[in-house]
Amino acid sequence: MIGAIGRMLFGTKNERYLKRLRPIVDRVNAHEENVRKLGDTDFPTHIAELRQQVENGRSLDEMLPEVFALVREAGRRTMNMRHFDVQLIGGAVLHDGRIAEMRTGEGKTLVATLPVVLNALTGRGVHVVTVNDYLARRDAEWMGNIYRFLGLSVGTVLHGMSDEERKVAYGADITYGTNNEFGFDYLRDNMKFYLDQLVQRDLHFAIVDEVDSILIDEARTPLIISGQAEASVGMYAQMNSIVAQLKGEADYTVDEKARSVALTDDGVAHCEQILGLENLYDPANITYQHHVLQALKAHKLFQRDDDYVVKDGQVVIVDEFTGRLMPGRRFSDGLHQALEAKEGVKVEAENQTLASITFQNYFRMYDKLAGMTGTADTEAVEFQQIYNLEVTVIPTHREMVRKDHPDVIYKNQDAKYKAIATEVAELHTSGRPVLVGTTSIEKSEMLSTMLTRKRIPHSVLNAKHHEQEAEIVAEAGQRGKVTIATNMAGRGTDIVLGEGVRELGGLHILGTERHESRRIDNQLRGRAGRQGDPGSSRFYLALDDELMRLFGSDRLSGIMDKLGLEDDEAIENRMVSRAIENAQRRVEGHNFDIRKQLLDFDDTMNQQRTVIYSQRREIMAAEKDELEEMIGQFTGETLEGLYAALGSSKSGEEETEFVAGRLDEIFDLGRAEDLKHAVPTLDDAKAAVSAKLDTLRTGAPDMYWEIFRFFLLDSLDRNWKEHLLNMDHLREGIGLRGYGQKDPKQEYKREGFELFQDMLDRIKEGCLRSLCRLRLRTEVHEDDFQHKEQETKVQYAGGGSAKAEPQRKEPVRRDEPKVGRNDLCPCGSGKKFKKCCGR
What we know:
eight-stranded mixed beta sheet, Rossmann fold, metal ion binding, 839 residues, seven-stranded parallel beta sheet, SecA_preprotein_X-link_dom, alpha/beta
């Protein structure tokens, strides 16, 4: 009550913020007359002058009105598109690092050009993030007319481009690309060995188009670069056959709300009998337990042509929010292999994570982040909590006149789809265009079959027929056109009404089911009523729809039975629609919890990732004196930690054996058998290692530092990869700590930190182990014999060599004199060949 009175007196927070932006619009408009007088060639000159002013310390906020006026005029001259005042407001909101919620058709693509140009003046690059390659390419070319007119460069990052092409694109003032490409390039850059191989610059400013789709919907799936693991794939087929032998509720339970499955006690016993195991939950059998549950999930929770399709002998994921295929993406944790076994296609080897990051943590690395979409207000809390982004609702250029009708609810699917087909037929006959939104490929094809029987011409847009997407959507507003589409999130193409359609009532949106997210429903509705166009929308529901079935259809079913309604009769009531929205809110809250939990766990990994990636960059950029300091530090810390064992509780003989073995293993100071009789003091060991490294440094001065850099990065990457696997395993089982009255998240942080510390020690040891096994050898080239020119090469005692500019590959063994395994090694180490170069 008090809040309502306050809003009446002072306006909402959104209204107060918009009121503060009005003077900015007035200042932009005040520049328009002078800007109109400029010649075309004056624009790049003005932009160059403004760039210089930014370098000299002038703030972007101060020059915003002038820059916006220049961009507006550039749009008018190059594309005959002049920014409306509300679009100027949207541009100011984006420059402030906020989310601008703008209705469909309000020109978000054009709005972005305003803050993009302003922030490009810093020379640090601006990223515009889109949901697919088509939109990235289209928007870069389309809006590129404005940027090039102003003297700015534009690049596009697309799937399949080479590193050289990517580097050029990122070097431009403005770079368009998809969230996946930006994120994967960041991960790939942090797997490279030389600074000149990096493609991305520092992350300065990004504007995310369809921000809710990218930062909310896709945030449940982290970006992962993986390599093939060594595990056998045969177990997936075995577990797939076991699922067929399990009996419904007696052996397992399925929780569709939580998207989880569990074995009952009888089910556990049944599995043990089939597998011939004494105890399925014995730690030794954890792999069987895991694979059985993944096979159950594949069969009971994941539906073909809904969650995935089988195409060209492969299981391809369908994006649940956009309905698009996601080739190359795989479900993790063995689930994808379980689906392949279920569908009888080739089961690919399971992958091991090499690098990963969530979208949340990637986009939070930008110095400034902004976004735009038609529907963000329903997720405002999450944007604020996760990304510290405020949502601002921008007023429309023209008043919205679309009519949103209450939902109609039928008893079952058959009655609902018959009513939908009848409604489509009537609208088609009247000449009104209809866009039918479905939640799955299966439903879109079923409805297509029904309309074909009624001889109603129509187009189908889903993951199986997405090639002509832009063309199909663009024609959806023509007279009598019927279009069936899976979820319309982020389609990015306006539906323009054809001739005579406005008079008929405009485009009608017909939803065949409510999505679990209100936002997706609003995006579908938003395809009609653009720029003040007429239009209407209505959702058709059934009591056995997934959302209705999971959330409260029992009460409605009882009401319909009491009223004596037949199957083909429907309820139409706004109270019912509100009840459905409440169910959607509960699902949205549940999904938010899932994303928050993912982020909570990834925050631990993110701290570690930041340390490792920062160290990689430091190593890549380090000069000789910095590298020398690193070697000294690594040697000192490793030896001091090793000699600390001499003061342990072990017996004297055990201590000396341990230290001797480690000195031999890490520093190659002599045979462990010999060392244990006379372990050198700490100072002597340091001196011996120092002498060994000095010999290498003086013998190969031009190569030594690059070789050390190579070994250090190689050791870091190998141990980081192993650490990621260990962290995956830790996370899989950490939930069980709750049974011991311990907080799983805190336990994950604590144990993860211990694993991380161990990894840092292994990185140092691995690098020193490789470096201390290098041997110098002088070779005389036959071609240069007359000049007696000699070349020093570095021989690795482990059986390979490193050149002056080592590449990221395994060293190649050189031809050596033939010696027996037990003979002394010809490299002069004093060791047997089998324990030196022949190992």
